[in-house]
Design brief:
Layout: H1 2-32, E1 35-40, H2 47-63, E2 66-71, H3 78-85, E3 93-98, H4 100-107, E4 119-128, E5 130-135, H5 143-152, E6 158-161, H6 167-179, E7 184-187, H7 191-199, E8 205-209, H8 210-218, E9 222-227, E10 254-261, H9 266-280, H10 283-291, E11 294-296, H11 301-322
Parallel strand pairs: 1-2, 1-3, 6-7
Antiparallel strand pairs: 3-10, 4-10, 4-11, 5-8, 5-9
Length: 327
């Protein structure tokens, strides 16, 4: 009887161990869905990164799961976006991108995804203001003076960008094209490195997102000459637009959007869009975006998809006009 009891006890232990082993994959699988990845395919300090981190706490509450921001910079945004398009189509992975997303196909020869078909636009969150800035050593305080300086020293002035093919690269190339000047391009791996070298005097100028330089402009560490938008920004109402500053054909509007993997089920799209719009209604979010020169939009998914389709054509024309190329 004693041996039988021992045998039964041993059998029970084996059964319990087997049951626990069977539960491990299930538990791990459930754990993987306990948070939502928010991919920012840009370096920390960029406008995309700023927006993602501002929105993530409110999105966590709206979606009922922690939203974790993951920076995956590189190749103008291709590396991070490639991760997103390969993710499960269940809402567990979303992304924040700029209009650089629709510029990439015109700049890079080999993009491992389709910028339209392989993503689901969730919402255009905001319109971003770009500002033409110079370091404080540049002897130009207006756009006119900068153009005159550049023409007197062809190729000697330099501008920085967040990388080849980035929004900042294209916006600055368009400025050079419209102004008829030759300024050397210095690509960086992200906006934070560009800003550090700009303040340090290693590059002369750049077209940068207002959200990344507002504090530095206010502190007098860099000079703001003009903004890219059709209207002046409320953050710096005394800074003219590039059109007012003498470039009547300059037009470059940049935006920030939420996206997800392509062919996302409509109920998931509606849930994510609703969470995004609810987040944009919060005072702390609205104030945070406005303080950085971002104008809130909050579109539907359908409106976002239409803008993506239209802008990929429009930005391709600007790429051709500006002559921007990979180096």
């Amino acid at each position: 009887m004693r041996r039988a009891g021992i045998a039964w006890t041993g059998c029970l232990v084996v059964m319990l161990a087997a049951f626990m082993l069977l539960q491990v994959p299930t538990t791990a699988q459930a754990g993987e869905k306990d948070f939502i990845r928010l991919i920012a395919p840009n370096a920390p300090g960029s406008t995309v990164d700023f927006t993602a981190r501002l929105l993530s706490p409110a999105l966590s509450k709206a979606l009922g799961k922690e939203v974790v921001v993951e920076n995956l910079p590189g190749a103008g945004g291709i590396i991070g976006t490639q991760q997103l398009v390969r993710a499960p189509k269940d809402g567990s992975t979303i992304g924040i991108v700029s209009d650089n997303h629709v510029i990439i196909p015109s700049i890079y020869k080999d993009v491992p995804y389709d910028a339209i078909k392989d993503v689901t636009p969730i919402s255009i969150l905001a319109i971003n203001t770009l500002v033409l800035v110079t370091n404080t050593n540049v002897q130009a305080r207006t756009v006119k003076e900068l153009i005159e300086l550049a023409k007197s020293q062809p190729g000697k002035l330099s501008y920085g960008s967040a990388g080849n093919g980035s929004v900042l690269h294209l916006a600055a190339e368009l400025f050079c094209s419209e102004a008829g000047v030759k300024i050397t391009h210095v690509p960086y791996k992200g906006g934070s490195q560009l800003l550090a070298d700009l303040m340090g005097g290693h590059v002369h100028m750049g077209m940068v997102g207002m959200s990344t330089v507002a504090e530095q402009i206010k502190a007098g560490k860099i000079n703001a000459l003009a903004v890219s938008t059709p209207k002046r920004t409320s953050v710096f109402p005394d800074v003219p637009t590039l059109v007012e500053a003498g470039l009547p054909n300059y037009s470059f509007t940049t935006w920030i959007a939420m996206i997800a993997p392509g062919n996302l089920p409509q109920p998931v799209v509606q849930r994510l869009n609703g969470a995004a719009l609810d987040t944009l209604k919060l005072k702390e979010v609205r104030d945070g975006l406005a303080a950085q020169g971002l104008e809130i939009v909050g579109s539907t998914s359908e409106e976002a998809a239409k803008l993506f389709a239209a802008d990929i054509v429009k930005k391709a024309q600007i790429v051709k006009q500006s002559g921007a190329k990979m180096q």
